Structure formats: structure tokens, C-alpha cells
UniProtKB/TrEMBL annotation:
Protein name per its UniProtKB record: Large ribosomal subunit protein bL12c
Residues covered by the Large ribosomal subunit protein bL12 C-terminal domain: 96-162
HAMAP family: Ribosomal_bL12 (MF_00368)
GO process terms (BP): proteolysis; translation
Any Gene Ontology CC annotation: ribosome
Length: 163
């Protein structure tokens, strides 16, 4: 009589088959999502990719050098008692960016000449840089050099900021 009754798969076998079907569906959906994201990223222009990169690192809590950003580190140290925050606060910034905020229209030529003096830009590139103000003029300079650049640009009528 046992040979007449068809064999029914066990519960665990049915469950594993169901899981496998579900995993394949989830994997396919995940793969399609990743392909869509990759296509969207490839459609971005150079400036949009740069902005996306900055946003992505910001969301991940990383700074531009790959380390943890200051804000998440401050949150974790304040929760732990705050004793380790003193050495972190003692660190000083060593590299600065000089950013041209705005300039007097009458001093445009002088500003372009000063920018050409401390960068390797040609006349056309310097003019484009000045016209798209606010823009970073020089990146990663020491504090002394940055202060000299700021002083020269302020003399000719530009508003400059250190970042």
C-alpha cells in the first residue's frame, strides 16, 4: 500500500525550494536596480559626477581623504565621555583653499592679472575663472601662502575667503 501513495516532499524541502525561488527573484530585482543606478551614473556629466562623489562621501561620513569626517567623530566621542575629543580638537588645518567670492567690476582686469600671477593659468582660463565667481582659485596651499594671495586679491578689489 505504501507504493500506491505518491511521495510528498518534506516540509523542509518545500521551504528550501520556496526560498531559492524567492532569492532568485530578489537577486534579479537587486541586479536590475544596480544596473539602473549604474546607467544613471554613466549618464551624468563631469560636474554632476564630481558633485555626486562629494555627496556620496558626505553621506557615508567620510572626508575627501578617506578618513572619518569630523562631525561623526565628534558625536561618537561625546557619547563616550568626551575625553578623547581634546586631541582631535587640537589638530589644526594645514591645507587651505582660496575662494574668490566676488569682485568689483571695475577691477576685473586687475583680479585676472593677480590670479595669473600665482597660478599657471592662461589669460582665457583666468578670465573664465574670475567670471564664474564664486570659485576656488587655489587649492591645498599653506596658511602663509594663502594669506599672501588673499591680501593681494583684496588690494585689487576682490572679496576672497579661506576654506
Amino acid at each position: 500500500m505504501s507504493s500506491i501513495i505518491p511521495k510528498i516532499p518534506s516540509y523542509s524541502l518545500a521551504r528550501s525550494l520556496f526560498r531559492r525561488a524567492l532569492c532568485t527573484a530578489a537577486t534579479e530585482a537587486r541586479t536590475k536596480k544596480l544596473e539602473r543606478i549604474a546607467d544613471d551614473l554613466l549618464d551624468l556629466n563631469k560636474i554632476e559626477r564630481h558633485d555626486y562623489n562629494i555627496l556620496f562621501f558626505h553621506k557615508m561620513g567620510l572626508n575627501r581623504f578617506g578618513g572619518a569626517a569630523a562631525a561623526p567623530a565628534a558625536q561618537s566621542s561625546s557619547a563616550g565621555g568626551g575625553t578623547s575629543s581634546a586631541p582631535a580638537a587640537a589638530k589644526e588645518k594645514t591645507a587651505f583653499d582660496v575662494k574668490l567670492e566676488k569682485f568689483d567690476a571695475s577691477a576685473k582686469l586687475k583680479v585676472i592679472k593677480e590670479i595669473r600671477a600665482f597660478t599657471d593659468l592662461g589669460l582665457k582660463e583666468a578670465k573664465e575663472l574670475v567670471e564664474k565667481a564664486p570659485a576656488v582659485v587655489k587649492k591645498g596651499v599653506t596658511k602663509e601662502e594663502a594669506e599672501k594671495i588673499v591680501a593681494k586679491l583684496k588690494e585689487v578689489g576682490a572679496t576672497v575667503v579661506l576654506e
